[in-house]
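Appendix B, example 12.
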Amino acid sequence: MRTTFFSTSVKLGLAMILLVTLLGTHLSPARAASFVVDTPIDDALAHDANPGDGVCGDSWGYCTLRAAIEEANALTGNDTITFNGTMSITLSSSEGGLEINDTVQLDASTVWNTAQDRPGVSLSGGDQSFDCLRIYATGAEIYGLHIHSCNNAIDIYGSSNTIGRWGQGQRNVLSNNADAGIFLSSSNAHHNLMQSNWIGLSIAGDAKAPNGVGIKLFGGAHHNDIGGQTAAAGNYISGNGAGVLIDQPSSGYNRIGGNVIGLPAVGTQDTGNEYDGVLITAPNTTIGASPMAPNTIANNGWSGIHIVDGQNNDVFNNTITGNTEDGVRIDGASATGNSIKYNSIYHNGGKGIRLQGNANGGILIPTITSADASSASGTACINCAVQIFSDSEDEGEIMYSEIIADGSGNWSYSGALSGPYITAVNTDVTTGNTSEFSLPFTLAGSNQPPNVPANPSPANQATGVSLTPALSWTGGDPDGDTVNYGLYMADSITATLSLVWSGQSTSHALTQPLLPNHTYYWQINAYDQAEGTTGPKWSFTTLNPGANYQIFIPLVLKH
């Protein structure tokens, strides 16, 4: 309920108007004013009563957020809007979003909830039908807000605006918005900074609170920084549909640095973006390359970085791991000049680097012809830059060096190497095209893990299996090492597999009868003197002997 009274600020404003009238003079609009929002109210009466008079006050005397922004828009100079306490503001569906048209610092950092390390002011769109903040200004700053349930939390049409910083209470949390957390949507949107925000995460930073896209650049938005030159400037962009989308050929020369894309800010819960961590159809994007800080791009549902028909993008110095599909995927014959160098790329579900449809000019992979603990050699494209990695699979977790192939395409490296595998990529220094990873080469003298156990008997999902089956499998070790096996079993799909036998044989006969007509789950783990390999989980169902079945004491499996 609104109360009928004049605030002190309104009375002061009326007194000033009366004084000017009596003196017969005219005051020019106030400059660089400061306004303090004192109510969470937003409705048809929340507009500023007299924009440009230097007083934030709606028709009832309240300084609403809507009135403060309208008053700041009407004044020249860099105005400041703060809050007199914590509050939750739900924007009126009839009045829609807020528009910032002039330089203003909208700063909720002074009422930051330090006890729980989260914003003290929330701004809600209610039903996701409109953009909560639209910024047409140059040089606006937005700090310390939780903006949620909008179409776009923040839609930027202007330049040189700053969304979030790394100071106390300056982080924004942008979550549960239908389209994007931050949307830069025209060629006028340039040289904007988006730093230290949590985008797509809960207010606590430990769970998904998805936006359709974390940050979307579209329609020619250019020369913007997502993150910055230090890790402190980076955003957490996790839990969204896609993490970062830079779309259209006109949306070039943007930079991404210092961000964590796909991981939680707090805790260990899975917060990978549902689709790609970064999706680019634009040219000349810098992802981690100097002067920007490296990014961590991990655990996303599709690829870590996906470039579709984009040219001359630089992917340098990043950690790209645990993505369901490829670490870096480049699609399309027009996708050329994309350089992928100095990264740590490993444990992705597909390839470390995948080139589709003659992307990057169809550049061929290098070959490795020899590798030991102190040297490696092979062939590559003529005069290309070859980067040497070690990895436990077929990607490139640890980079050792970059060398230049000679005029015949031969290259050699001298220096310490560790395995178990050595891989390489080559980059044409003229075109900037980077290849996929080479086939992995086993480092001479390095230990390789045992072979993955395979060929189970009974076959996986077999039925009618004896109540005292003899279990067997194939194994072995590529180095010829002695292998020890562990047999793990469980009597339900949700139970924990428990060790029931270990030894060096590749078979084991159960002596205690199993339950009839029951499904069991089993797995073999293999170990040599230094490495271990986990086999797949298999199952079988025992036979049903019928009414004459004699009950035995079953094998006891620990849960």
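Residues 319 and 424 are 17 Å apart (CA to CA). Helices lie at 8-23, 65-74.
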